[in-house]
Amino acid sequence: MTKVLVIYTGGTIGMIKNPETGLLNSFDFNSVYEHIPELNRLHTEIDTMSVTRPIDSSEMSSEDWIQMAKLIQNSYDRYDGFVILHGTDTMSYTASALSFMIKDLQKPVILTGSQLPIGVIRTDGKENLITAIEIAAAKDSNGESIIQEVAVYFEYSLYRGNRSSKVSSHQFEAFKSPNYPELAIAGVNIKYKWSALFRPKQSKPSYNFSLSNSVALLKIYPGMDINLYRGLFDVSKTKGIVLETFGSGNAPSNIEMQSLMKDYVEGGGVIVNITQCSSGGVKQGAYHTSSFFNKIGVISGSDLTVEAAITKLMFALGTESNSDNIKALMATPMCGEMER
Ligand code: ASP
Fold first, then answer.
1. What is the sign, positive or negative, of the torsion defined by CA atoms of 252, 253, 257, 262?
2. Exposed e or buried b for every residue in 90-99, given b needs 16+ CB within 10 A?
3. Which of 60, 113, 142, 256 has the fewest CB atoms found within 10 Å of its own CB?
4. Average pLDDT for 161-185
5. Closest by CA position to 113, among listed 7, 17, 203
6. Looking at the predicted structure, is the pLDDT value of residue 17 above 90?
7. Could you give the residue ranges of the DSSP H alpha helices within 27-185?
8. Are residues 180 and 234 in the same domain?
9. Residue 280 has what pLDDT?
10. What is the pTM of this model?
11. Distance in Å, CA 168 to ligand 1 centroid
């Protein structure tokens, strides 16, 4: 029988309403079988565990991602797949970070959660959890895991984790993968899109737990006064900046902004250019208003989501010290997170 480890990290899925205060609090996850007896009927052996302190995912930090990656490393050989129950708010950040920290996975790591707590009658949590477990246990005809990457399962769709984004705070369809097809659709059967699945290059996973928090995210807007953000361009404090630009990577030709960025990059800072559009990517040099970025060595983030861009930059700055290597890493796809 296949064996899946379910790790509860917090979020709405594992919460119940405190009748006195009306507030949502985490429940003891070991009692999950009381809430979802259907789990007993899956032909999969399920172990459950909870992190010491389950949290709302708004509280997630890079330390928590490292703790999760280490948990997977320590139990990797004992399970066929992993399901991480996680708050939806930052699920795509966690999925992206895990995809960079764990290279060449041969087993599925599926993140899921829900918009309504499991104790609520109309919960989406039961279906999400049950199907995520089925996907985590699924093998092909050679006995290999069908999914060999970090993915997010939500409301009948399986997405590549580092391609996913939370797009709705109130609909059950809370996630999208704007620039990459779904990996699977769960209908009467689970239909996998075989050609879209990532395959590792090595036969064993490798782990890297170094993440740098010296990264910033800056979204430009018409009329922006760059002086308000001058402090960000201090390379002794901010090692890398993800810049969210207009359309296919464009920004105003503002001399002050340009010289700040030029000095920052010359001083060893890394700037990654991604689009603030909800789909598509950056093509630096397509317009005059983005050609400056090519001249000063801003990295095109292609079609990275903001979640993947920030976590990849944390990873690149944490693992590499040479600025050319950091830039090369940022410009090259690692695990299906971007188009070349
Ligand atoms: N605030 C919650 C969280 O992200 C929302 C959710 O779980 O859906 O932890």
1. positive
2. bbbbbbbbbb
3. 142
4. 97
5. 7
6. no
7. 32-35, 62-75, 91-101, 125-137
8. no
9. 96
10. 0.96
11. 12
In this structure, which amino acid lies at residue 249? G
pLDDT band at 289 (very low <50, low <70, confident <90, very high): confident
Structural domain includes residue 254: yes
Q: What residues make up the domain containing 121?
A: 2-207
Mutation probe of ligand 1 site: the residue of 8, 9, 12, 15 with most atoms within 8 A of C-beta: 12
Asked, for residue 338, whether it belongs to a domain, the answer is no
Distances from the Cα of 323 to the Cα of 111, 129, 299, angstroms: 32, 42, 12
Per the residue annotation, which of 12, 90, 112, 131 is the catalytic one? 12
Residues in the ligand 1 pocket, defined by CB under 6 Å = 10-12, 56-58, 87-89, 113, 115
CATH code of residue 92: 3.40.50.1170
144 with 241, same domain: the answer is: no
The total number of structural domains in the chain stands at: 2
Same domain (yes/no): 194, 242: no
**Encoding tokens for residue 173?**
């369809």
Check if 12 is active-site: yes
Find the 87 Cα to ligand 1 centroid distance in Å: 4
Atom number of ligand 1 nearest to Cα 56: 9
Helix or strand holding residue 22 (H, E): none
Q: Indicate if the pLDDT at residue 119 is higher than 90.
A: no
3-state secondary structure of 2: strand
Tell me if 339 is assigned to some domain. no
Which is it for strands 109-112 and 165-166: parallel, antiparallel or unpaired?
unpaired
